[in-house]
Amino acid sequence: xxxxxxxxxxxxxxxxxxxxxxxxxxxxxxxxxxxxxxxxxxxxxxxxxxxxxxxxxxxxxxxxxxxxxxxxxxxxxxxxxxxxxxxxxxxxxxxxxxxxxxxxxxxxxxxxxxxxxxxxxxxxxxxxxxxxxxxxxxxxxxxxxxxxxxxxxxxxxxxxxxxxxxxxxxxxxxxxxxxxxxxxxxxxxxxxxxxxxxxxxxxxxxxxxxxxxxxxxxxxxxxxxxxxxxxxxxxxxxxxxxxxxxxxxxxxxxxxxxxxxxxxxxxxxxxxxxxxxxxxxxxxxxxxxxxxxxxxxxxxxxxxxxxxxxxxxxxxxxxxxxxxxxxxxxxxxxxxxxxxxxxxxxxxxxxxxxxxxxxxxxxxxxxxxxxxxxxxxxxxxxx
Length: 383
Fold this sequence. Notes:
This protein is 77% helix and 0% strand.
C-alpha cells in the first residue's frame, strides 16, 4: 500500500478551473465558425471528439488490464487512470453535438456518400435510429465498466478472483464495443472500405493516449511529492510497457498497409492513395518519425527509461503525436483529393481537451486528497 500523499487540492482545483475557462474561450470562435460553415464544424468536431475520447477510454482499458494481470505499474498509475476513466460520462455528453449535424459528419447513415452503393443489409445497419442506438449502448457499457472497476480508488481488492474475472469480461466488452464504434465513427466514413485491423488501431491508439498521459501526470505529481518519486525499477517497467505499445501500433499499421497494398484491390487501396498522396504524405511522415522512430530509439535506452525527465519528454512527444494521427485517419475520408486543414481542426480539439481536463483534474484532486478511501470502501464489483 502506497503511503498517503499530502493534499494538493488548491493547485489542482485551480488548474482545473483555468482549463475550463480556456476551453470556453477557445469554443467561442468555433461556435462562430459553425454559423458560417456547419459542415466543416461537424467534421472538425469529430476529430476533436475522437482525440478526447482516447485518454478516457484508454485509461479504462488499462485499468481492466491491470485488474486482470496485476503488477506494480498499475499501482503507480492507478490514481491517474482512475481519474481519467471516471471522465467518461462527460465524454459521452461531448458526443451530443455530433448528433445535431448527423448527416454532415456521418453521410453513410444518410446514404449520401458519392460513388458508394450500400447493400440492403448495410443500409439497415447504418440506419439513423440504429446508428444512434448503438452509440448510446457503447457509452452505457463504457460508463458502467468505469464505475464498476473504479469503485475502489485503489487497485487492491478484497476479492481478487472476482475482480480479475470481472476485468476479463470487461475487456471483452470493451474490445467488442470499441471495435463497433471504430466502424461506425471512422471506417464507415469511406462507405464500402473495410479493414479487419481498423478497430485494433483505434484501441491501441487509445492506449497510446492514456499510457503516456498517465505516466506524464504521475511524473509531474512527483515534483510536488518528492518522497513518492518513481523508483528506477518501476520507471523502467513503465518505459518498457510504453515501448511495447509503440511496437504494437507500428506492427498493426504496417500489417494493414502491406496486406492492402499487396492485394491491390481498388475498393481497398483508395484509402491509402488519398493518405499517401501530396500533402497527407507529409503528415504520414510526421507520424513515422514522432509516433514510432523517435520514441522507439529513445525507449531502447535504459537511461531514458530510468530518468523521470527523459521519460516525461518521450511521453509528451507520444501524446502530442496522437493528434496528427487522428487527423490522418479521419480528415482524408471527407476530402480524399485535397490536403486542407481548417483552423477549427486545431481549435476544437484543444478546446475539448481543456474541457476534459476540468473533470479529470478535479477527480485526480479528490483521489490525491483522500488516499484512504480505498481502505474504507468495501463494496464489491458486480457479479
